[in-house]
Amino acid sequence: MTTTRQHKVSRLLQKELGDYLQKNGSGITKGKMVTVTVVRISPDLGVAKVYVSIFPSDKLEEALQSVRDRAGGIRREMGKRLKNQLRHIPEFTFYLDDSLDYIDRIDNLLNE
To answer: Which of 25, 42, 65, 92 could lock 21 by a disulfide, CB 3.0 to 4.6 Å apart?
Structure first.
């Protein structure tokens, strides 16, 4: 169960992370498009699980590891952007969101 504060912070982080990765993500992942699909934040607002979708889907783990390696720099950039809205910027842990692949797989199975 998420509180109103958790929901507001997760939406704010999703918006700002999405904007940052839209502008700088292709440089981080060597030309791949990175989209932030969901941000789930812990009750103490200290840890944020960030689910990203990466397109095209070849070498996903390599691209995801590249984003994970730059998590500290991304957090620092979010600190600069959100210094007037948030007192503490949470630690980011990045996960691959494969829900679109799952939906595509189900769709293909239903069309057979």
So the answer is: 25
CATH number at residue 72: 3.30.300.20
Q: Which domain holds residue 93?
A: 4-111
Q: How many CB atoms lie within 10 A of CB 95?
A: 14
Question: What's the rounded Cα separation, in Å, for the pair 58 and 70?
Answer: 20
Tell me if 91 sits within 8 A of 48, measured CB to CB: yes
Cβ neighbours of 56 (radius 10 Å): 10
Do 29 and 63 form a contact (C-beta atoms < 8 A)? yes
Residue 25 pLDDT? 83
The span from the CA of 98 to the CA of 55, in Å, is 11
Say what the pLDDT of residue 65 is: 93
Confidence of residue 69 (pLDDT cuts 50, 70, 90): very high
Rounded CA separation 101/110 (Å): 14
